[in-house]
Amino acid sequence: MTRTATVHRKTKETDITVALALEGGTVTVNTGIGFFDHVLTALGFYAGFGLEITAKGDLHVDAHHTVEDVGIVLGQALAQALGDKVGITRFGSAFVPMDESLARAVLDISARPYLVYDAVMPQERIGDYDSCLTAEFLRALTVHGGLTLHMAGLYGVNAHHLTEAMFKALGLALKQAVAVGGDGVTSTKGAL
User: Nearest 5°: CA angle at 136, between 191 and 157?
Assistant: First the structure.
């Protein structure tokens, strides 16, 4: 089974391409935002994905449009790569500690987009990345990927550690949820 997708989206604010292979491969990310590249690389690695992301955005304004639009395109690629979702485990969860921080991700590939985000960031900025943008990325990912996601930064005093732990937890939860564990749709309704 080949579960791959390539999605390109160009607007007046951003130009983004995401190539996703759920069965694995290399991870390369270039968004022009160093910390965002760092955590997206971690997400792809811990999910076990092949993931290539290239993004050019209006960073002279700020990083908001680029971060949000990467979430949109990655969500679309995930939905396409999953196809009819036959055989997937569907649910995934993970806790990830990073030094003094602890994060939790719990998700359902439900086709019912919903984000519960509970994280108070100790610092407003992480390099060139506004820490509030994590919620924007996750909201776009859940809506366009058809995910129900409960993401929590349970505690921490370093925004870098807490955010990185959240992206790693999301990757591990996605790895569980996209895994093929049967030959039917994991739903009592018979469809997702």
Answer: 115
